[in-house]
Amino acid sequence: MSGAHPDPARVAELKAREDAAFVAARPRSQELWAAGQGVMPNGVPMSWLRTSYDHPPLFIESAEGSRLRDVDGHEYADFNIADMSMFTGYGPAPVVEAVSRQVARGSQYLLPTEDSIWVAGELGRRYGLPLWQFTLAATSANTEVIRIARSLTGREKVLFFDGKYHGHFDDVLVELEGDHLVPEEAGLPHDVTERTLVVPFNDLASLWQALASREVAVVITEPALTNNVGLLMPDAGFHDSLRELTRNAGTLLAYDETHTQVVGPGGLARMWGLAPDFVTVGKSIAAGIPLGAYGMTEEVAAVLQRPGGRDDTKPQVAVGGTLFGNPVSMAAARAAMSEVLTDGAYAHSQRLGTRLADGLSGVVTEAGLPWTTHRFWPRSGVSFSPAPPRNAVEATTVLDVPLRRLMRVYLANRGVWDAIIGAGPTCSVAATDEDVDAYVAAFGELVGELGVG
Ligand code: PMP
């Protein structure tokens, strides 16, 4: 152990042992992966899946409630919940019933159903914005928000905070390298960095410097950053200043609640009384059936309104997709919000989140480790640092990728499916005390084996 980080040699030794055990116990997954390689790059339906985990891919047989079952018969208490999209748990009966009924009546008409009115109204009640539109994913909700903001403001630039993730679309796939922007991945236009600004989270001076040019159409941020950087909480007063500075600069403000919606109905926007121009959501809002949505103020919505139908005198904002807002997604969202994502269900997941945080913090304290435990309603997790990071640079410095990778395979071998790297484990509304206790026990065993307990 040196400072907050365990001995790398011990981490590597345990990793080799756990990787071998993982592969040996999963022959059917290995067979399917080999077969997949003949027909799909990396042997999986999205090539990046292979690189999002360090261990070989796991093929899944089925899932129910809080549990995943792989094709080799192993069961896992699931704290990744498909990167937050299965916060409802797997196969909640009201969603199964509503979706089955809707598929039998027709999956898509490209005409509205009554459910869309209920879903838009309920999102409005939860998030406090009156008018809503639908897509198939949060990525496309964010894309459309940007187009609407550009059209309204006549400005091209978009601002994000360092450490963000808002989906895979060009404007957002740039990152800070030192003090300049670079494309995050290959395949992006060479000038992709020219329309995007990225500033450190919690840094109001840099934010104002970027906004003052009055070239920024919209700021998109999660209320607390929950992705590549683990968890970054806003400083006290940060959101009030963000709202004031964006207003002063004539810039619109969008909160992306795709992940943070799990804290309760209306996400952090409602909990913290935020006043954005847009909110975007996706993932668990329709229980993992594809649906993205964005809410907006009346003023913003005016750019889309055409009460008399086609209007060639008014520019048409580039929005839309054939399967967006389809009746199956709407039926799923209605069932999920009316019968699964209830106040009682959020309260249950929050109680378990606290149980998880208490358990992790107990292990950390007993081992005398200088680590911090997050408390984020249903979500928890450990930062390998004595104080929580405030921005992406601090978060990256303490990340310890080899230790994270060891943690995930170690937990998987003990029937616990951990969050993807950097993200914290989250208790779904279907999770149980036993699931949480299994997570804490496996984490405690690992700390013991690392020789720091
Ligand atoms: N916004 C946030 C905050 C997210 O975390 C994600 C996915 N991790 C997205 C948007 C994109 O969601 P999707 O991939 O479902 O479009």
Number of DSSP helical runs: 15
Structural class category: alpha/beta
Q: What is the average of the pLDDT values?
A: 96
Largest sheet: 7 strands, mixed
Ends apart, CA distance between termini: 11 Å
Please give the number of β-strands.
Answer: 15
What strand order characterises the main sheet?
4-12-11-10-9-5-8
- What is the CATH topology descriptor of the largest domain? Aspartate Aminotransferase, domain 2
Rg, Å, rounded = 22 Å
Helix content: 25-40%
Name the hetero compounds present: 4'-deoxy-4'-aminopyridoxal-5'-phosphate
Textual characterization of the structure:
By secondary structure, the protein is α/β, with parallel strands linked by helices. It has two domains: 8-87 and 343-450, Aspartate Aminotransferase, domain 1 (Alpha-Beta Complex); 93-340, Aspartate Aminotransferase, domain 2, CATH 3.40.640. It is built from 15 helices and 15 strands. The chain has helices at 8-24, 27-37, 49-52, 93-105, 114-127, 138-153, 204-211, 238-249, 267-271, 298-301, 327-340, 343-366, 392-397, 401-412, 433-449, and strands at 60-64, 67-70, 75-78, 131-135, 157-161, 174-177, 180-183, 196-199, 216-221, 252-256, 278-281, 292-296, 372-373, 382-383, 416-417. The strands form four sheets. The chain has a seven-stranded mixed sheet with strand order 4-12-11-10-9-5-8, with helices on both faces. Strands 1-2-3-15 form a four-stranded mixed sheet. A two-stranded antiparallel sheet has the order 6-7. Helix 5 (114-127) packs across helix 11 and helix 7 (204-211) runs parallel beside helix 8. The termini are close together. The model has no long low-confidence stretch (mean pLDDT 96). Bound molecules: 4'-deoxy-4'-aminopyridoxal-5'-phosphate. 4'-deoxy-4'-aminopyridoxal-5'-phosphate binds at residues 83, 137-139, 165-167, 222, 227, 256, 258-259, 282-283. The site of 4'-deoxy-4'-aminopyridoxal-5'-phosphate has 14 residues, from helix 6.
